[in-house]
Write a structure and sequence with these properties.
- By secondary structure, this protein is an alpha+beta fold.
- Among the domains are: 202-259; 268-417, Histidine kinase-like ATPase, C-terminal domain (Heat Shock Protein 90, 2-Layer Sandwich), CATH 3.30.565.
- The protein has eight helices and twelve strands.
- The protein has helices at residues 2-13, 17-68, 103-112, 148-225, 231-259, 272-289, 309-326, 384-394; strands spanning 81-86, 89-92, 115-122, 125-133, 140-146, 268-271, 293-298, 304-307, 330-338, 341-348, 398-401, 410-417.
- The protein has a five-stranded antiparallel beta sheet with strand order 2-1-5-4-3, sandwiched between helices.
- A hairpin with a 2-residue loop joins β1 (81-86) and β2 (89-92).
- α4 (148-225) runs antiparallel to α5 (231-259) and α6 (272-289) runs parallel beside α7.
- The protein is elongated and about 140 Å long.
- Its EC number is 2.7.13.3.
- This is histidine kinase.
- Keywords: Kinase, Membrane, Phosphoprotein, Transferase, Transmembrane, Transmembrane helix, Two-component regulatory system.
- It is an enzyme of class 2 (transferase).
């Protein structure tokens, strides 16, 4: 019992009040959808059953009318009302109700022949009346069947279907709600654990980053006050450290937002060319160390999109880092305008994407390409292009791999709507 309580307690701690509220809303939506499906299916089945019973009654009545028309007796004990007109005389069944026989139909058939079938209503009863001549053509026989019993049977069937439908819908709603909550709970807990992990990791990293930024600023101030021959170069390097630590802090905030789809940030007009240039500048040292020429070109100086600077910086960094990992000697970044989109294209002269990986290159933990050389490259986890796809989607854009051209390496394109 203690183990069970501990398990439940641990499970409850994995979800906040907001997570549990989201779980209840999601389970309610799923239950309503499932209940609506059950109601639609039940209505379809009930309508089919009602149609079958109604059609069966009509066919049975029609057979009874035709069979009774062969009788020459108005009182055969079958409960069918009959009228026989022959030689100017009209003979009718006992207890013939008011409104019957239908003399107009008898006169019409006696004069013109054929068959006349109609409905006659009187005193709360509806009668199906069939008038036709006998096989010899000497008599006109009219047969009437009271439909009240059939109508009452259909009404009872309809009432039973309605009651059963209400009960089934209520039961389906309750059961589907319970099953939906039970089936969604593991997923909700997994998402809650993911968000908690990102939040905890971001919190733990924020403190050393703050210390790093503070110490870099103190070092910068010390170098500024202590003249030295290489002071300007050292001060510039420290400036870069301060800027990088600030960027890392912003990336942590962006990761927190990306991990929780309920959180959003206000997007601002952003110069995509400037953002790309800054990101490429930060990667130039890495590219030079690998002996790779990293260049960026743009069709115009300003290309504006709606976005957040840190997210776009992450996108450029992931795209170019992926290209550097597989390039032989060159990586080229191009920013241009096509129709109503801003297009970022990153091309490298590496081995390119294999046909078997193109469909899942943007999935997390998917190894996109084989390494070009050596074992000195850092380990990769297949997250870079997945991050690119996530950032592009959050900015209303898309990412794709361009068709391979023999000997040209790989080309990845990202589209953003222009602001």
């Amino acid at each position: 019992m203690a183990k069970l309580w501990k398990k439940r307690s641990t499970s409850g701690q994995s979800m906040s009040k907001r997570d549990r509220a989201d779980l209840r809303r999601a389970a309610l939506r799923l239950a309503l959808q499932f209940t609506a499906l059950i109601v639609v299916v039940f209505i379809a089945v009930g309508a089919l059953l009602y149609f079958i019973v109604s059609t069966s009654q009509s066919e049975s009545n029609q057979r009874t009318l035709i069979d009774a028309g062969h009788s020459l007796s108005t009182d055969d004990g079958s409960g069918v009302l009959m009228a026989i007109y022959a030689g100017g005389r009209l003979q009718v069944s006992r207890d013939m109700p008011a409104g019957l026989p239908d003399t107009d139909a008898i006169s019409q058939v006696a004069t013109e022949g054929g068959v006349v079938q109609n409905q006659v209503s009187n005193d709360g009863h509806t009668y199906t009346v069939r008038t036709a001549k006998d096989e010899d053509g000497d008599r006109v026989i009219q047969v009437a069947i009271d439909q009240r019993e059939n109508q009452e049977e259909l009404q009872r069937l309809l009432l039973a279907l309605v009651i059963a439908g209400v009960v089934a819908s209520a039961a389906a709603g309750v059961i589907s709600a319970l099953m939906a909550r039970r089936s969604m709970r593991p997923l909700a807990e997994a998402l809650a654990l993911q968000r908690r992990f990102v939040a905890d990791a971001s919190h733990e990293l924020r403190t050393p980053l703050t210390l790093l930024s503070t110490r870099a600023q103190l070092l910068k101030r010390t170098l500024h006050n202590a003249p030295s021959g290489d002071g300007p170069a050292t001060s510039a390097a420290v400036d870069e450290i301060v800027q990088d630590s600030r960027m890392l802090s912003e990336i942590l905030e962006d990761l927190l937002i990306a991990a929780d789809p309920r959180e959003t940030t206000e997007q601002q007009p952003l110069n995509l060319v400037e953002a790309g240039t800054n990101a490429i500048a930060a990667l130039q040292a890495d590219a030079a160390g690998r002996g790779i020429a990293l260049t960026i070109t743009s069709s115009q100086a300003t290309i504006t999109v709606a976005g957040t600077a840190v997210s776009i910086h992450r996108l450029f960094t992931a795209l170019v880092s992926n290209a550097l990992d597989h390039a032989e000697s060159a990586v080229k970044v191009t920013i241009a305008v096509q129709a109503k989109d801003a297009v970022v294209t990153v091309t490298d002269d590496g081995p390119g994407f294999g046909s078997e990986i193109s469909d899942r290159a943007f999935e997390r933990f998917a190894s996109s390409r084989e390494k070009t050389s050596g074992d000195e490259q850092p380990r990769h986890y297949g997250l870079g292009l997945a991050l690119v796809a996530d950032v592009a989607a959050r900015h209303g854009g898309s990412v794709s791999i361009e068709p391979a051209v023999p000997g040209s390496g790989a080309t990845v394109s990202v589209r953003f709507p222009l602001a």
